[in-house]
Amino acid sequence: MEPVIDQAFAAALYSDGDAGLDTGASLLAADPTADAELVRRGEEFVRRAWERGWQPADVVRIVRRECDETAVGLAAGLIASETGRYEQLPPRWRSQLDGLPAAPPRNRPDRFSYASALLGLYRLLLRLPAIEPVGPPPGTSPHGPHLPPAHDEPRMLTRIRALLAKAEATGFPEEAEALTTKAQELMARHSIDEALLAARTHSKEAPGACRIGVDAPYETAKAILLDAVASANRCRAVWNSDLGFSTVVGFEPDLEAVEMLYTSLLVQGTVAMTKAEAGQRAGGRKRTKTFRQSFLMAYAQRLGSRLVADTARVTAAAEVEVEAETGSEAAGVAAPHLLPVLAARDMAVTDTAERMFPETTTTRVRGATDLDGWTCGTAAADRARMGGSGPGIHGRRGNR
Question: b/e map of 49-66 (b: 16 or more CB within 10 Å)?
Answer without folding.
Answer: bbeebbbbbbbbbbbbee
